[in-house]
Amino acid sequence: MISSFAIRRFFLIILLSFFFSFNKTLPLNDENIFIAPIDINLYVAGAFGEPRGDHFHTGIDFSTRGKTGIPVHAIADGYVSRIRVQAGGYGHALYIMHPNGYMSVYGHLSKYADAIDKYVIEQQYAKKSFEVDLYPDKNLFTVKQGNDIAYSGNTGTSTAPHLHFEIRDASGESSPLNPLKWIHIEDNKPPVINGLMIYQFNSIECLAEEKLYTVIKNGNEYSIASTIIVNKSKTEIGVRSKDFMDASDADGDFGIYSIHSSMDGKEFYSFSLDKLDFSEGRYANAHIDYAENKMKDIQIYRNFILPGNKAGIYNNILNRGIIELTDTLKHSIEISVKDYAGNISLLKFKIKKSAVANKINEIPSKGFLKLFKWNEENSYSTDSLKITLPTGNLYQDLYFSCKKKTHAAGKIKSPTYSVGDPYTPIHNASNLSILPANIPEKLKSKAVICFQNHNDKVTGKTSTWNGNYLETKIREFGDFYVLLDTIKPVVTPLNLQNNQTLTTDNIRMKISDNLSGITKYNGYMDGEWILMEYDIKSSVLKWSMNKNLPEGEHIFKLVVADEVGNTNTTIIKFKI
User: Fold this and answer.
1) Is 127 in a helix, a strand, or coil?
2) Contact 553, 575 (CB under 8 A)
3) I need a surface site. Which of 320, 520, 527, 532 has the fewest CB within 10 A?
4) Angle at 435 between CA 430 and CA 441, to 5 degrees
5) Strand 500-501 to strand 567-575: parallel, antiparallel, or no bridges (unpaired)?
6) Hey, which bits of 220-329 come out as E strands?
7) CA 570 distance to own-chain centroid
């Protein structure tokens, strides 16, 4: 006979086995496996998934309230798998792979922890390059949760001191996840709804009419003053909205985490931002109303999917979110706008189709040359211009236009071509070729196709010759023309002059270029290459002396080159 002690012992063994077996797999699902990356009150300056300038924001920006040098911690055990230093982008960035299958990313850092910093500097000197992309052996820098790995900063294209922080899935590179699953942020503020957009497209899905309606606020519920009457059976809607957080900068407003839309109680459109894919980032231009964002700097979230939008963030989509009204009765629309903390704002309104036919223009009366189809390769050419958009580069059909403006002989070496609609996005790089006026052979290498956007900002683009045509890649419509860049970059010493005595522990030089852009910079001290850090925001190169120079005379040399090979060599003799 089995004793009661033996029975209790048997069940205890089973219970413990279950406990340890459960805990073995727990970290992959546990929401408490990560700690915050910085030990200060967490203020959010940027949220996960915000549509930002041609991409979704793939992490959270933690404001450091104007300070740099705040210790940054590893959020869990792991090893440093990648270290990247760029003048732009994330600036100084660090990547840690964790054994539970996640990767964490820390960007805009001012400095790495000492051992990592020493390794990076050694690699920069070995490669003779400030910008490096390093993949150290996984045993070189192992970390424990809470270890200091770096210090916060303002490097790269950061506009203010903050920490850009990401958590990615096991693939390590392709799929960023919403960090709010693990990092708790106090948030009791619901999203704000500022308006409702009604779109009417023609039969080939080119925009024919749109109207922005004012909303009436009552607590967390919003409404429209009267029933909306539309002219077509097929209608699309968009909601102008943004979110705020308790723990944010005073002026902080953020993108929307989730929207669910229904008609007469049946959901026809929804999205949520729990996981993104870097390869789909540019679909942010189709997720929101690109034209309204460019023209008015407002974000209207489409509650429908453009035919060329292939982003994977959508759920429960009926007919791409297009509302079909087959009668003239009133129908109830409800839009639920939610943040990650679960705060919800509702927009409710009535909509009906007009009983009186009100024809919408199917084709523009003038101003277009050709219909570009969203699901085809599209091209247009004249005797001096060629443009090709590969399949998949448009989100919807486009009435393509192109205007030509000629110039008298002078600075501009081609006509100006106003290509397409500057408020229509292009998904991937497209080909543009211009036949310039006669350019002497010795100056051909200096020819640059320039792009002038809707705000009249002019930038030079990387350009190459193909026969008599100058070619480039474009990702925006706008004005294009050819200039010659024969001016070398400008170098302005900030704290060092010829024959002076250096009284600081660094050398700082401001560099700039008029058109094609700086591509190379190398500094030398007494003939040896030195590491000069480039701050792209201030256009300043800085050498921080990591060893004392002996007393006496020294020679500093800086060589700066632009995209087309114009070079400025600056030599300064100074004393210590």
Assistant:
1) helix
2) yes
3) 527
4) 120
5) parallel
6) 221-223, 228-230, 234-242, 258-263, 266-272, 300-302, 314-315, 323-324
7) 36
> Using CB atoms within 10 A of its CB, is residue 552 exposed (0-12), middle (13-18) or buried (19+)?
exposed
β-sheet bridge partners, residue 151: 71, 111
Based on the domain organization, do 269 and 403 belong to the same domain? no
**What is the rounded CA–CA span in Å between residue 251 and residue 63?**
12
CATH number of the CATH domain containing 569:
2.60.40.1220
Helices (H), 359-511: none
CB 388 within 8 A of CB 379: yes
Same domain, 71 and 85: yes
Nearest 5°: the CA angle 201, 333, 336 is 105
Is the separation of the CB atoms in 63 and 44 below 8 Å? yes
Residue 151 CA to residue 545 CA, distance in Å, equals 20
Per-residue pLDDT of the chain (576 residues; tens, 9 = 90+): 444 444 444 444 343 343 333 333 333 446 679 999 999 999 999 999 999 989 999 999 999 999 999 999 999 999 999 999 999 999 999 999 999 889 999 999 999 999 999 999 999 999 999 999 999 999 999 999 999 999 999 999 998 999 999 999 976 568 999 999 999 998 999 999 999 999 988 877 778 789 999 999 999 999 999 999 998 888 999 999 999 998 886 567 899 999 999 999 999 999 999 999 999 999 999 999 999 999 999 999 999 999 999 999 999 999 999 999 999 999 999 999 999 999 999 999 999 999 886 666 666 656 789 999 999 999 999 999 999 999 999 999 999 999 999 988 789 999 999 999 999 999 999 999 999 988 999 999 999 999 999 889 999 999 999 999 999 999 999 999 999 999 999 999 999 999 999 989 999 999 999 999 999 999 999 999 999 999 999 999 999 986 678 999 999 999 999 999 999 999 999 998
Contact 60, 46 (CB under 8 A): yes
Same domain? For 525 and 563 the reply is yes
- How many structural domains comprise the chain? 4
Backbone angles phi, psi at 337, to 5 degrees: -110, 125
Indicate if 281 and 202 belong to the same structural domain: yes
Q: Considering the entire predicted model, what is its pTM?
A: 0.90
Spatial distance between the Cα atoms of 276 and 286, rounded to a whole number of angstroms: 15
For residue 122, the SS3 value is helix
The two tokens of residue 174 are 């392709």
Query: CA angle at residue 52 from 51 to 54, to 5 degrees?
Result: 95
Beta strands in 297-440 (DSSP E): 300-302, 314-315, 323-324, 331-338, 344-353, 370-372, 378-381, 385-389, 398-400, 402-405, 416-419, 425-434
Tokens read off for 122 = 């050694």
Of the candidates 345, 183, 166, the residue with the CA atom closest to the CA atom of residue 256: 345
Length of the chain: 576
Nearest to 364 by CA among 397, 405, 325, 323: 397
Q: Tell me which of 464, 484, 504 is where a domain ends.
A: 484
Domain containing 251 equals 192-353
DSSP E strands in 86-128: the ranges are: 92-97, 103-112
359-364, long-range: CB < 8 A, 24+ apart? 359/231, 360/200, 360/202, 360/208, 360/209, 360/231, 360/232, 361/202, 361/208, 362/202, 362/203, 362/204, 362/208, 363/202, 363/399, 364/399
